[in-house]
Structure formats: C-alpha cells, structure tokens
Automatic annotation (TrEMBL):
High-level lineage: Bacteria, Bacillati, Actinomycetota, Actinomycetes, Mycobacteriales
Endpoints of the signal sequence: none
Zinc finger CGNR domain residues: 137-180
Gene3D superfamilies: Jann2411-like domain (1.10.3300.10)
Record protein name field: CGNR zinc finger domain-containing protein
Domain of life: Bacteria
Gene source species: Mycobacterium deserti
Amino acid sequence: MLFTHDTELTLRAACVLINSDRVDGEQLADLPALDEYLDGFGWTGRRDRDGAELHAVHRLRERLGAIWAAAHDEERAVGQVNALLSDTKAAPWLTRHPEMPEWHLHLASVHDPLWQRMGAEMAMALADLIRSGELRRLKICAAPDCEAVLIDLSRNRSGKFCDTGNCGNRQHVAAYRERRSRAE
C-alpha cells in the first residue's frame, strides 16, 4: 500500500466519479445511480436525495476532472485542491467505524451537504498525494479513444490505461496484431 487505506479508497472513488460521464455515457443520471455509487464506496452521513444534490455532485465531478487535467502543472493543481479544501470548509477529525476499524480522517460533519463531505475528503486525499510528491500518479488513459482518468497505484508508476473500458487489453491486442501483420 502506497498511501493510507482511506486515501487510496477516496482516490479510487474520485476516479469512478470523474469517469461516470466519460465512458459509456452518463452513469450518474439519476438518484438511484448516485445511491449505488455512494453505497459502493461506503459514503456515510446526510443524503438529501434530490435533484439539487445530484447536480452538486455533478459540479464536484467537473472540478475533480479539472484537477486531473492539471496534474502536469503542480502549481495549478495545488491551487485547485486548495480552492476545493476552502470551498468545502474542510475541518479534519479522526474517527473509526465498526466496518472500518482503522483510524481515518473525516473532513466535514455528517450533517454537511453530500458534495461538501465528498469534496473535502477527495481534496484531502489529493493533498496527501501532492505532499508525498506523487501528483504524477494522476493520469488520463493513454488509449487514443479514451478520456477516462486513473490513479496509478503501481509501485513504479507504470500504469497507463484505465480499467473502465478494457483499454490496456485493447491496446496490447492492437499492437500484437500490428507486429504480426508486419512479420507476415
């Protein structure tokens, strides 16, 4: 494990959120889809379950996508992460739950709006990444026909392809076929 469990989980959740409208159309089009996403990553606390909440999560998704897009420019990425931390009024505190007995950080009250809690935790996970000099782990899929983001948690930072569209396998098969056709 490169980062703490909650940091890795939150970075993965951010990737899935960003990719929810980059691969196969809009995946968070309605409240049941949002609930499925939230339950899948164990988000706790207040849920208003209305259109305004869904729209706020979509806006958060755009902000996070902009951070991934700026990962090559550390100063710009840091500015965006700091703005997100400020806008969410992040206030860290340690907690643990029966389902996650390790100590971890929460950065907003369970009573704060969903986007605020999600944004604060995702911004803090990104801050952890930046503080450890690992911003280059934020990547856009290298497949020419894919815009999905990924968090490269490989030991040597060699990950290039997302896991949303089988991009790595498709690119390897295409390269194999190209080599084979040249050999014939």
